[in-house]
Prior knowledge:
- 2 copies of one chain form a homodimer.
- Chain A has 239 residues and is mostly helical.
- Chain A has one domain (26-234): Up-down Bundle (Ferritin).
- Chain A is 70% helix and 0% strand.
- Chain A contains 8 helices and no strands.
- Chain A has helices spanning 39-62, 67-93, 98-116, 121-142, 148-158, 164-177, 181-205, 210-234.
- In chain A, α2 (67-93) packs antiparallel against α5, α2 packs antiparallel against α6 and α4 (121-142) runs antiparallel to α6 (164-177).
- The two termini of chain A are 30 Å apart.
- Residues 1-24 of chain A have low confidence and may be disordered.
- Chains A and B meet through α1, α2 and α3 of A and α1, α2 and α3 of B.
Amino acid sequence: MFEWLFGRRRRAKAPVLGSRLDAIGAADRIDLSDLTPDLVSFLGQTAYLELAVFQSLGRVVAEAPNLTVKEGISVVAGEALAKHHGLVAELRKKKVDPASAMEPFTQAIDRFEVLTRGRDWYETLLGIYITAGFLDDFFARLVTGLPRTVAARVSAVLTTPGSDEVIIAALREGMATDPDLGARLALWGRRLVGDTQLVARSAIAASDSAEGIHRRIEPVFTDLLGAHSRRMDELGLTA
Amino acid sequence: MFEWLFGRRRRAKAPVLGSRLDAIGAADRIDLSDLTPDLVSFLGQTAYLELAVFQSLGRVVAEAPNLTVKEGISVVAGEALAKHHGLVAELRKKKVDPASAMEPFTQAIDRFEVLTRGRDWYETLLGIYITAGFLDDFFARLVTGLPRTVAARVSAVLTTPGSDEVIIAALREGMATDPDLGARLALWGRRLVGDTQLVARSAIAASDSAEGIHRRIEPVFTDLLGAHSRRMDELGLTA
């Protein structure tokens, strides 16, 4: 269902501008530009992903345990919405109807969104935090295959630092109140990151050279899992 | 439950900067500044109102009938959120905790929000459009009693033009498909504007000079109803 075009725009890898992964090294130098989907597919897929994240955060805002958290998470929801609108703006620049560009990706992303809904508010919040973080990083790695000027702007959109501290504070507050929550969140985080990798990988597996691609994408996943572990660490959870 | 302070800051009426009501005349010159709540109550109440509007629009985005409408309404949701954050920023400037300032108003606004939920997606969307429009206009009329520099900024926040055309297009599309929807929406709009006036009025009725205030506020309501009628007109509905 995902359209990945191969060998269309081979070129020297441009650095991912402003990526929070810049400092990681090794896998950062792997050239994935030939795995980058065509521009419209890339933008449609990421734009709908951010819209789905926004929708999920909207529910989290509506059901927040208190007004301080509600206010805080509303900022995070606004950040996801800004990413969505930033990506939609790129589609509009190309005179592409955003709805048409997003349409091919709605089913898979909606299904994934349902999967990330937890048993309670805290699990759902962790789910959004963990999966959106991983997928933003994943797509940020693929921008190198986009036309250079667009790549810089799209990278800037995807890697805009969010108000993670609000999410971390809300989850820590929940764990302080409920002694069982931490263990539950650790398990949930582990399950989610597996599912998230499958989603990212499925996008690539649709191609005809699946095996080779998997071998190349593995070190990138290892990197992204490093970022994931740091997110879990900040919550005092083992990834 | 609303705290309105009287006679605290009598002064010559400052024009409501950028109000979409500027052109209306007569009632625009009625000085309501002595009816303006104290700054923290004003900001807490309007900030929570915009947050509630955002939450409602979040649900509308999630349940939108198609992707084009979903994308369009997400812009409107972002506008409500920006208003909320603009008002919260004013509270922060005053070193006031936004949650504490909003808290006294959550119950009444939540109750009102439930009241504005319609029987279907279209009624709910009309409900948000009509009630948020009326209440933004209402509070914009009251900014004249706020300290001058704050008043200008708050007025600018409340009267920022929104993407009404997106809402109008979505509702017109619905009415084109369902021949009964128009009549239903017209009735719903009439009921809502009654309830909305009660909400606005109840804020004032808590004071000890209710009768006189009611007489002064009536011409303002007449004006706001004019703006309401124009909103309904644009939808081809009779207010």
